[in-house]
Structure formats: C-alpha cells, structure tokens
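Our collaborator T.R. sent over the components below with a one-line note: 'Predict the complex.' Nothing else. No constraints on interfaces, no templates requested, no preferences about which chain binds where. So this is a plain run: every listed entity goes in together, and whatever single assembly comes back becomes the starting point for the next discussion.
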Amino acid sequence: MTPKKMKRRGILAFVQNKPGTLNKISSMIRRKMYNVDTLTVCKAKAPGVSRMTITLREDDEAKVTQIIRQLEKFTEVIRAKELDRDQSYWREVAIVKFELEDKEYAKLKKKYQLEILDSQPHDIHIVQIAGPTERIDMFLDDVGVDHFIEIARTGVTAMDK
Amino acid sequence: MKGTELVLRALRDRGVQYIFGYTGGAIMPVFDEMEKQPGFKFVMPRHEQGATFMAQGLSRASLSTETPQVGVCMATSGPGAMNLVTGVADAHMDSIPIVAITGQVATGVIATDAFQESDVVGVMMPICKQTYMPLTAEEIEKTIHEAFYVATTGRCGPVVIDIPKDIQFAETGKNYAFDPKKFRPKLPGFYYHPTPQRDVVHKAVEMLNRSERPVMFCGHGVIASNAGALLQEFAEKSNIPVAFTLHGLSAMPLDHPLSLGMMGMHGTVEANRAVMNADLILSFGMRFDDRVTGKLNEYAANADVIHVEIDPSELDKNVATTVAINADVYRTLHVMLSDPELIHKPRRRWLKEIDDNRKETAGVEEEIARGVGDGGQLLMKTIVRRLSEITEGRDIIVPDVGQHQMMAARFYNYQTNNSWFASGGAGTMGCSLPMAIGAKLARPDERVWSISGDGGFQMNIQELGTIMEQGTDVKIMILNNGYLGMVRQWQTLFFDGRYAGTPMQSPDFGLIASAYGIPYQKVTELDQVDAAIKSAIEHDGAYILEFICDPSEVILPMIPAGGGFGDMIVSRPKA
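Returned assembly:
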C-alpha cells in the first residue's frame, strides 16, 4: 500500500538577509523530519529582508503551527505564516527540453502558453512554461516521460490576494 | 583599537568577572590581552567541557543573587571548540545563559581544512540560541553586547561567538566609537513579550476558582524569573497543591504542606496521581517533556490546561492548552495575585485524596530508616536524607546524572531558593563537578555539594585539578555502587537482569584525592555516615566522601519510558 499523499502546505517567511539563515531554517525543517517540497528565496521590498516560500506535506494543523512558531523563534525570522491556498497565488516556472514531432508540438503550443526559447534540429525544443504547479505537471504529462530530456523547475513562490 | 581589546572591553562592560577558558593557537591573542589587562578572574578547566559547565554553574547559581552573571567560556578553534559542544547543547536544553567565545582560524584559510579548523558556526547552530562570527574589528563589541542580550532575554540560552584569529588582531578605523549604554540590538525578528494580557489571566483565575481538583506545576521558568516566593504565596492564597519538574525544585520549600514533590518518571505517587486525576492544570514555565508526561495520549485526560510560558513555541507543542499565556512567570503570578476575584477554596476531598496518596510513597521511609540493602551496603536514599537533615536542607546541591540524581531530587528537603542545579534536558553525565565549581564561585558564602555516581564522577574527574588550583571549597560525594546505576535499574526491571555494559571498576579514589591534595574519607558503614558528612562540613576546603552503595537499590516510583501514569511501578517487583 502506498502511503496517502499528505496535504501540501505553503509557508511564507520574511527573514533577515544574513548568512546562515537558510541553513538554520532548513536544518529545523529537517530536524522535524520533513522533506521540503520546494523552497524559494528572493529579496523583499524592505532592504535587508528576504522573502522565503517553503512548501512541504503535512495534514496535521497543530504540526504546521509548531513549524511556524519554531520559525518565528529564530532571531532572523521577522514574520512567518501559513499561506491559505484559497487566498493566495502559488506559481512556478519550468524550463523544459524535449524531443517531439511537429504535429504533437503544434498541439502543445496551442494548449499551453509557452515561451519558446530554442528549437533545434531533430525535433528538439526548449520552452519555458509558468503557472500553478498542477498546470506544469499537466504539461509534462502531455509531453510524455519518454519525450523530455531535461527539466528545470524553480519551485513555488506565492503571494496573498 | 585592536580586536582583542574590544573583546575584553565588551565583556567588562557586561559585568563579566569570571572567564573559564582553555587557550590554544587561535584564541591566544585574547588570552594575551587578558594578561596585559588584569581585572578578570581567570579559571582554567582541565578540559573545555569543564569550562562550559563551570560557566553554567555560575549563571545558574548567580541568577537569584543581587548580581546575576553570565558564565563565559573560551576555547581555541577545532578540538577546543568541539569540546564545548556537549556543554553548550546541555545549556540549550536547560535554557541556561552562557556565552562561549571560540578562536577560529584566520579568514584567509577558513574552509580550506586548515590546522585545527572546524565549522564551529555550522556545528553549534542547531544546539544553541544564536551563533556569531564577526568579520571586522568594528563588529566585535556590537556582537558581544548583542550576544549577551540574546542569551539573557526571554527564554535564556547559550550563545556562541566564533572569532577568526586575524579579526582578533585587526584594528578598528580611527573614527570607531561604541557606547554600550546607548546600544540597542537591532533584532526585528526577536520576539519577547513578558507581560501577560490581563483578561486572559483573569479567565485563568476564573477557571481556578471553579476547579475542584486543580494542581499547579512549578517549572524552571519559576526559578529563571525568580518567582518562587510569589508561587508559594499564590499556592497558599488559592489553596492549590504544587508539583515540581526536575528544574522547578527548590523554587519553594519541598516540605511545604501544599508541595507534592517532583512529578514525572521518578516523581512521587502523590504528584503523579494528582496530575492523573486533576480537573485543571496550571503550569508555570515548563515544557511538558516526555519525562514529565509519559504517554501523551493518556496524559491528564480529564484536565483543562493553563500554560504560562515565555517561549511561544512551547505552547501546544506536546500538550494542548485550554488557555495559553505567553508571558514571564513572575509577571503573570503578580497579575494573578492581584486579581480581586481569586478565592481560597477548601477543596477538602481533593486534598484528602492527595494525603492518602502520600502514605503510599511513605513506604520508602522504612527503607531509608533501614539504611542498607540486603547485602549490608549503604543506600543512596539514606545518604541523601542524612545530608538533608544535617544541613537542614539549606545547602546547594549539584547532582550528576543518573540514579543518584533522582535520589537527590527526591530525598533532599530543599529550603533555599535556587539551590538545585542539575542537567535535566540533556542529562549529561560528568556535569556535576565543574558545575559545582561555577556555583561555588557565584555563591561563595554557601556550601556546595557535588554529588556523583562512580560513572559520572570519572567523566570530568580531571576538574579536581581546577579545584586544587583554585582552592574551591566544593564538598564532593561519590555514591559508588560499582555500576551505572540508572541503566542497571532499567536492566533489572525491563531487561531480565542482563547487566550489559554497566558494571565498572573504579580507581582508588583515595589515592586520586591525595594526588590532588584533597582530604578523603571512604564510608562503608551506616553508623559512619553522619560523622563523615560532618567532617566534610567542618573542613575548610574541598573534601571527597566516597560511599560504598548497594548496587541493587532502585529509585521508585517509576513510570516506564513511553508508559502512562497508570503504569507507575510503586513497589519493587518480587524477585
């Protein structure tokens, strides 16, 4: 029996942009025995502050609260909260290199908004696709596992409505 | 100014008197500066781990004095710093403020696997409250002041400052200025809310007033916020019994009529039954760890929980609260005491039930009175009780970790506020001897007892050298039963008496004592116990007493690990 897939959680943290902060946060999450699904960091509007979006799997509300409280305990973490899936936008970008015949490729171009980065001989294409995780997963399904050569995904970044 | 001068200036500005340090290549410049600028009392341990526990002893014991101090320990890079790890982790588990300063290899060779290089910041990060590595001379003072602030504010803890050797030698710019009085650390993410909300506290008071079977928990937070006297006043005013965590001991007299003694794995019957049958728990400054709660899903099943705690990440961590008060214990008790609606309820049935349970633990009194085991060897319980009676429960007790620690927790009648310093969370064997040295330096006018087993004593036995050199007046008790007693007890109860890795041979402690010039007595007979304790007391200076104890003695009651309060073993199973 395969274990039931747990609910995906998004955590947004504003942290001081200092060496070691990422290490501290990822160590804590590891110690709590989670495997991070995605983790993205960028500069926030305020100077010296970074914005970190972490996604991981957990069904238990109390455990998510515990992670947030432990995050907030770190001196470097200015604020942390859970992102409500219905009240926020979660997006990621993928660059995908694949081999596909013209007919199939034309179908995909019509179905998805792709930015074409490169088209090489022998039906090899490099495209960029952005959107919710599910949409990128769907695109990859449509390309088909036998056809793609390499995938680079950024992981989720998110913003409240 | 030079980096090393700034290190010492910052420590002096922070009121540091003692430095527990062991030199080496990468910290030499700071030591050199100490030689040039007298004023610090320097104590050299015989192993860096000793320095961490001396620093802990100083911090723990001085907490309740008029001049609280933060223990400072120093070590060189690489192995020196790595030898601090256990003591720092121990301080982190027990929320003890210490500042550890380590030398690091020069910035130019960091991360090249230079001689005596270790990634100190990387290693320490998960086991301390904060780590720092200043990279310019200008950062040094700011860093040290911030480190002291972080170590001592909110839930206390250890802080590590790793200073590369070239930064110790570096000079500040000409315009460098630093005013410690005006310094405020810029820590936008540092959460510290000591003041409780009045309406929430009032809600708690209303719950207490309604409760027929309440019990109060006294944790380390009561000691840390110096709230023992307030807690006692509150217990008396509200007529609620008090159970203690290991670190809550000595916050109020242990023989107070409302005291239930220690709770948890080796707690008293009356404390654990009270928790099991309570309808309301009011807990102050503790974290519901597994040694306190046992099996969580059976824990205090019928009780509402009011949890007062300075660290918000402890609230609802292990036990769900009905009312969570994220505040300082002292301030919360102050607000509770001034609530005009707080009532003194007789609760005769509840207190009678508790008194009936006390009789069950009282069975142990017969054992204490007998004083020896079946083989005629001394019982640890009796030795601790004799010490308690001779010293009227007023001395400072620094136990090591293991069976004797639980005996010391249970059978010494603590009367003096903040007089019990144990390694609780980490349970570090070997902590006692160095921690007792630090405690004695903090409170020179009080008598300090280091109580160890034969196992733990040999883990930091080298600190006898520090005692010899400093002339520290620490009274040392070795309760020698030839085994690692606590593990042996588990082997007796749960492993069919297979004593794997617990029997141990000890050296002639008398010869060791004489090598260090410390008077020594070996005690084998019950009728020698009192006289031996008295001769240690009468001697001006350190003294070692070795008691030959019964290896089959057990500390009961006991809740097996992972068990619930209903699984409590109260009396010894028949062989």
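Summary for T.R.: Residues 89-160 of chain A form a domain with the Alpha-Beta Plaits fold (CATH 3.30.70.1150).
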